[in-house]
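U., I forgot to send this yesterday:
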Amino acid sequence: MVKSMTGYGKATAEYNDKKITVELRSVNSKQLDTAIRIPALYREKEAELRAELLKLQRGKIELFITVDSQKSISQAQINESLFTDYYLQIKSIGQRLGIETESPEIIRTIIHLPEVLSSDKKEISDEETAALMSCLREGIKQFERFREQEGKVLIADILQRIVNIEALLEKVEPYEKNRIGTIKNRINTNLEEIISSASIDKNRFEQELIYYLEKIDITEEKVRLKQHCTYFRDTAAKEESPGRKLTFISQEIGREINTLSSKANEVNIQQLVVQMKDELEKVKEQLLNVL
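Result:
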């Protein structure tokens, strides 16, 4: 099943007096790129949280975890002895250098010095850890469901454009038949303008013409282009996360379309090729968001 790399999921869980909320958001990325924003209380569980995110495979993913509680999760405490020590040292230096040290800014500065402010944060219990991880897994489940829904819309648009390319290819054939006769007549006319008709070696002319027409024949390109389009559809239908593979196949489709363009020598075929390129560019843009 094709999934989008864009996703969103949210879940909540209750543990004692706490409400744990998990939110996941993602946009496209070539690799898995995770950013986690969690309360300090859960920092020790960061490795476990990241391990759960590995199953998401690709995308730039942001995980937000918040905790609401009727009680304060941690109560800050000021180390009075250390605060006093810092203050006296700052005051002494200020007097010696003639710097004002009675400003309220000094208090705020000291509060942020190492170990002045501490908390009584405790390790979370196994039960709370289980509630947290269960909430995350439910959030991931919702996130994956969102990706699947977006993926259905995405692949429907992409496959329609592949159908459009095939339809445009079918329109090439009538112009292809006329093209050979037009090229042959043009070459013959140009030769007769340069040398007399009697001087033209008809056998040699036919041999050279056949060689030239083989060089600009587009039969192989048409066959390969059809095969690539079929392979594209089969891959999208059968593989779990086909984004990278579909990108490679789209590149092969592009090569065949470019070769058609270089060999066309016919204005109507050139116009059809331009339309094919336009459809393929839209496919490539959409594939950037396919997992």
